[in-house]
Sequence to fold (448 residues):
Amino acid sequence: MKPVRIGILGLGTVGSGTVNVLSRNGKEIARRAGREIKVVQASARDLKKERACPTKDIKITQDPFAIVNNPEIDVVIELIGGYDLAKELVLKAIENGKHVVTANKALIAVHGNEIFQAAQNKGVMVAFEAAVAGGIPIIKAIREGLSGNSIEWLAGIINGTGNYILTEMRDAGRDFSDVLAEAQKLGYAEADPTFDVEGVDAAHKLTILAAIAFGIPLQFDKAYMEGISKITESDVEYAQAFGYRIKHLGIARRTEQGVELRVHPTLVPERRLIANVDGVMNAVLVKGDAVGPTLYYGAGAGAEPTASAVVADIVDVVRTLTTDPNNRVPHLAFQPDALSDLPILKMEDVETSYYLRMQVIDKPGVMADVTRILSARNISIEAMLQKESAISPKASEKKSGDTASVIILTHRIKEKNMNAAITEIEALATIKGDVMRIRIEQLNKEWD
Fold:
């Protein structure tokens, strides 16, 4: 049987890693796939650039369309990233009857519905394991390994840059801007870190996970996003004083009213395994009704961890080249005509607990005003901490000698109630500046 011929769009970090894995483990991979897999063509912007992989038998071109239009190519691997060009190339490859493997989470989250419909019409596969959590096989785990379960919720650390920053802030007592600058020097963060630190990257990935978990269309435009740039050293320390750690989580949860789809900083009990995932590592916690909570941990980025997922997708494609397209695993786990119309909840309708930090004028009656406002919105207080306790605010956060930091943890309440309460609290003459709000999730088996 002749080899399956691969064309790679983008011979950068992941592209080179893919070639290396296929070269090094070629015989083992062929034993699993049933056929030899051979990279025969790749596109790159700079033909003279030295590559981190062997290219002797690979024809390199600057024109990616030469690959998707090459009749000799069986499978196209899209690794260029972005939206527009990647979409055009992928749709052209599908039109030409080629199977596609991609690591492009933005492409799938935003254009996946259109791409999957085109692939279904043409009878080809689009595989995207590497689009979420790098080398962790989380797509396959939810789509196939947990297919006997009704998935109730999932929560994930799915951006290594943000997790690295929060870990360094906690372990080294450094501020956000300092750690971000270091992350950029180390190559963990881009020159423009917006996608990472403001939650866009995580929201792309969460959109994909939610679609597979709940059998709903991809709806990135309805995801709630909040970043970590406002988290201070003091917030990290206060969280620890209450027995929590701050993690930038993507959370998708099915409720009777609809699906929660949200990315934001979250206080997580420090005893939870996911709270102890540090540095650039990723982890996804999935709760199924039959299996209970399951945790998936590993490298969320990098040349060979991501290539591991790309090659696994190639093997899946090769195994199904001769099968009936109607008997393949559906792109979004559920049959295309069986997707649910469950709505995505607005953030104001989500119910959670809260951490509130505020600067108050240190005089009698201030807390009575705050608690009155909370009570009027049916918000009950679980715990409270003032500056005179074990932790004092950083000198840089002190507004003047007559202010104090007050931290309040609340019980669960709808976001719209908390929004209204915060607006009233900030309007008090005794409150200095904005109220810092971080959501709290217990992530336990009994999450109700």
Q: What stands out?
A: The chain is about 35% helix and 25% strand. Confidence is low (pLDDT under 50) at residues 389-393, 395-401. The first strand starts at residue 4 and ends at 9.
